[in-house]
Amino acid sequence: MSILKGLHLIRSLHQPAEITEIAENDVAAQFMLTLDSSITEVPIESSEARRVLWKIDLIVLPLIAGTVILSAVDKVIISNAAILGMKGDLDLIGDQYSWAGSIFYLGYLAFEWPTAILIQRLPVAKLLSFLTFCWAVMLFCTAATQNFAGLAAARFIMGCTEAGTFPIASILTVMWYTNTEQPIRVAIWFNQFSSIFSGIVSYGIAQSHTSIAQWRLLFVVLGGFSVLWSLLLLVVLPDSPVTAWFLSKREKYICVRRVQANNTGIEEKKVKWYQVKECMLDPKTWLLAIFACAQNVPNGGLVTFSAIIVSGLGYTPSVTTLLGMPTGVIGTIWQVLLAIPCSRYKNKRCATIAFSNVVPMICAILMWKLPRDNKHGLLAAYYVFYTYWGPCVMCTSLHMANVSGHTKKITMNAVFFVAYCVGNIIGPQVFRASDAPDYSHGYIGLLACFVVASVSISLYGVLCRWDNAKQDKVAADAFLDQDPIPNGFSDKTDREKPEFRYIY
C-alpha cells in the first residue's frame, strides 16, 4: 500500500482536526506529505530495505555506541583514579569516596526531568553533542579538584550533563529501528566496552612518569577524547531519519516506512500533559521503575568499587586496571546472547530477563561465601557477575517498544532513568568502608536486589499479557481492523490505539 493510500485511509478513519494534528506535529507525516508519487508509488524491495538498514548500522549505530561507551567510561573511571592516587591526594576519609560515587547520580537524577523536556523540544542529535561537550569540560574540572568538596561539585555537575545520554540513545533507537531489530542494536550500543577502553587508557597512564599526578592526567585525557567526540556528533549524527544527510529521499521514505509498523510515531515537539498523566498512572511504568532501580544497585556499587575490590585481592594498581578489562567482554557477550532469543521469539523477553538473573545471583553468593584466600575463585566470580548488565539492557528495549505517543515515551524514559539513578545512588552505599575489604554485607544487598528485579519484571510481563488479552477481546467484539497504518504516524498513546499490542 502506498503512503498516499495510507493517508487516504487516515482521512477515512479520522476527523479533520485529527488529520491536521498528525500532519502538523509528527515530522514523519510532514515528510511523507512532501514526497512525489514517483517515490511513494514504487513498491519497496527487500534489497532496498536491507541496504538502508546497512547504512543506518554503519553510521548511526556506531555514533550511539561510541557516545554510550564514553559516557560509561566517565562514570567508571573514578574507580581506577582511586587506585592511582586520587583518594590520598584529595584526603578522602570514611565514606567520602562512596559519596563521590553516589553524588554523580544525584546530579543525574536532578537533571533527568529538565533533560526530558529538552529532548522533547530540541533536535536530539545537537542536544547530545552539546551535552557531550559539557561533560568533557567537567572532566577537565575534575582533574583540577583539590578536596572532597571540589570533587563532589564536579561529579554532581557531570551527572547533570550526562542525564540525557541514555534517554537520547533510546529515542534514537526507536526512530531508526523496528521492534524486532531493537534488542540486538540496544545490546550493541548499551555495551560494556567501557571497561576495555578505560583499562587500556588507565594502564598506559599508570606507566607514565609526568609532573601531573596520574589520576589527574587520566581525567584530562578522557576530557580530550570527549571534546573530539562531541564535534563528531555535531557534524555527522542526524536528528531523525527525515534529516539524514546520508540518505536519498527514497531511502528516507523507506526508513520511515520501516519503523511505521512499530506504531509508536517518530517525533513530536508538542508536550501533551494527558500523556504524562497516563504514563504515571500505569502500573507497568512503576514495575519497570522498580526493576531499573533494583538491577542498577549492583551497577552503582561496581562502577565505584570495582578496582578497589580487585586490588583488595592483592593485585598492584597497574595490574588491577588490566584485570578489569575482561568484565566488558563477558558482559557484552552475555547481553548479545540474551538479545538473540528476545529478537527471534515472540514475547519471551521478560522470561529471558528474569531467568538470566540467576547467573549473577550465584556469583553474588560465591563472592560472599568464598574464602578470601581463594583469589582465583573470587576473581572468576567477579568476572561472571558482570552478566548482571544483560538483563538491564534487554529491559531498556522493552520500555521503548511498549510506549506510544512521543510525550509518553519521553516521560517513560525519564521515569526509567530516574529509577536507574536511584539504584546507582544506593549502590555505592551498599559497600561501606567499615566492611572493607570483604564487603560481605554488600554482596548480600546485591543478591536481594536481583530477587526484587526478577519479581518485578515477571509481574510486568503478566500485566502486558493481560492487557493484550483485553485488547484482543475488544477487537474481536468490534471486528476492528488490525492494520497499524492509520495510527502509525499519529501521536496517540498505546492505550488509545486499539491495534497496539505489548511486547513481553
Topology diagram in text:
Layout: H1 3-13, H2 16-25, H3 27-34, H4 37-40, H5 46-89, H6 96-110, H7 112-121, H8 124-143, H9 148-162, H10 165-176, H11 182-189, H12 194-206, H13 214-236, H14 249-260, H15 273-281, H16 283-311, H17 317-323, H18 325-344, H19 349-356, H20 358-369, H21 375-385, H22 389-401, H23 406-430, H24 440-478, H25 485-488
Structure notes:
This protein has 504 residues and is mostly helical. Helix content is 76%, strand content 0%. The protein contains 25 helices and no strands. The chain has helices at residues 3-13, 16-25, 27-34, 37-40, 46-89, 96-110, 112-121, 124-143, 148-162, 165-176, 182-189, 194-206, 214-236, 249-260, 273-281, 283-311, 317-323, 325-344, 349-356, 358-369, 375-385, 389-401, 406-430, 440-478, 485-488. α11 (182-189) runs antiparallel to α18 (325-344). The protein is globular. The two termini are 29 Å apart. Mean pLDDT is 85; it is low at 1-20 and 482-486.
Distance between the termini: 29 Å
The level of helicity is: over 70%
Overall shape: it is: globular
What is the C-alpha radius of gyration, as a whole number of Å?
Answer: 23 Å
Oligomer: single chain
The number of distinct helices, counting runs of at least 4 residues, comes to: 25
Spell the H/E element sequence.
HHHHHHHHHHHHHHHHHHHHHHHHH
Largest sheet: none
Indicate the mean pLDDT.
Answer: 85
Low-confidence stretches: 1-20, 482-486
The structure class reads mainly alpha
Total DSSP E strands = 0
* Strand residue percentage: under 5%
